[in-house]
Amino acid sequence: MMLPLHLFIGLCTTLLMLTPLASAQSNDTFATPTELTGLPLPLNSFNGSTATAEPSEPPHAGSPAAASIWFRWTAPASGLYAFGEWLHPGSARIAIYTGDTLKNLVLVAQGLDRVAFIAAKGDTYRIALDTPGPDSFYLRTYPVGGADELADADEITFKSDPVAIAGNNVLATTSSLDGNFRLIYPPTRTVWWKWTATFSGPVRIDNRRCQFYPLMDVFTTDSSGVLTQETAGFKAVAWLATEGTTYCIRLDDTAGLGGEINLWMERFPAGAPPNDMIAKATNLGSEPIVCAGAWLYLATSEAGVPHENVGMPSSGVPGDSTVWWKWTCPSSGFHRVSTYGSDGYTQVYIYTGTPSSLSPLGASIEPSGARFSANAGTTYWVKVLTYSNRCIRAEINIHPATTESTYFQNLDEKAFFRLAGEQRLPDADPDGDGLPNLVELACGTHLERADATNPNAPRIVFSSVGPRLRWSTASVSGLNIELTGQVATHPAGPWSSPPSFTESTYDYSVPLPSSACAFGRLKAHDPSLSSP
User: Fold this and answer.
1) What is the DSSP letter of 437?
2) Which pLDDT does position 307 carry in this prediction?
């Protein structure tokens, strides 16, 4: 289904609800804490500008109490939890305690911005958050999985394909057994799994859904326990497994922050992919494309084709790995081919002509790909290339690009989506947020993550003059977008434009009324296209 172009370029309406801030914090004292219930606890907003310290109040996270507010929470189950703040521009100080009075508090954990701690079911915890001015906080737990030491590594059972593996490395440490197989990234928070292969063939682990930017290694061990690295990578790893061999899988955090771990382990076809050669290019027809995939790991190079290095196999020097598609333009105009969704480093090339006589039109080493002028009825050849198996699975996207706003480019480091089957259709909505895939691509938002958790989505911020609804993008020239903000006291309206607002080419905010409940919506569209 071809979507109207204005829907592709425009940012669909987003609604946000705001409860007004109290003029003073009722939980300013230890004796009057706010009771927290439910998990995960969604973002809660407050204004600590009127908060104070109490006599006998202990220092929090190494500094004397200054503008502290208090919470009380009883753990519903034993496990790892984190309490953190979201909005304050500086460092918020957080401390977790047990105890019934200020004088008998026992410190459990403390730190800046986010504190992780082990809670026992039924125990009550006192939480101090010391941060002046407006802020928001959250309370969450983490999935269990991953062992801090190799000797305790969790066993992976390959019962289905793919296998979902969850865990966390929030409190993980390192040891001398971890080794340092990547000098530029010494171990920081390593966790381990083990898997004994029940088959022989290619296997892949995709780690792009982790809450942090991970580094993954796969090892084998000998009888004395010495590790031999089988493969390593950032977004995904792959190797040729041998039945009966035990593999040790290590995941580390390149920034040392720790967070939630979500892995996918799967088999993939042995041998070269069906579109390994240009003569066998996959025919995409003439519709917009989202995530048309191909396995690059066992792809080969092809002699006599432009921009391909065949290597020197006799000397052990591998050639490029390439896969091919062909696409026929449905209507004349600028289009874009990107490799968003690929799990590693790729290069994309676009050609016209015939397999024996190709003329290059565009190329790019960036995930955002290449923009080119296409003619209706013309067939274009698209090649995705990687070398030294830097990418295991390639994905391409083809869509209109008559005019493009800069927020499209912001997707580069956020496009770690993993779509399958009908989720790859241009008008599919995998995250259920009301934005189809093509609109998500145009807006620079994540195809699998709802807008409420998307950093590019409109959001509520607090200022000296009150709450505002704000949307911003990278400050890059060439943005040609009209921004409109409206407010209402009911989600069904009536909607009205505020009396004043600020606007620039990359920033827009609209004041929200201080009524019992306020709704704001923000819309962006390209005036060079038809009206939304």
Assistant:
1) H
2) 93
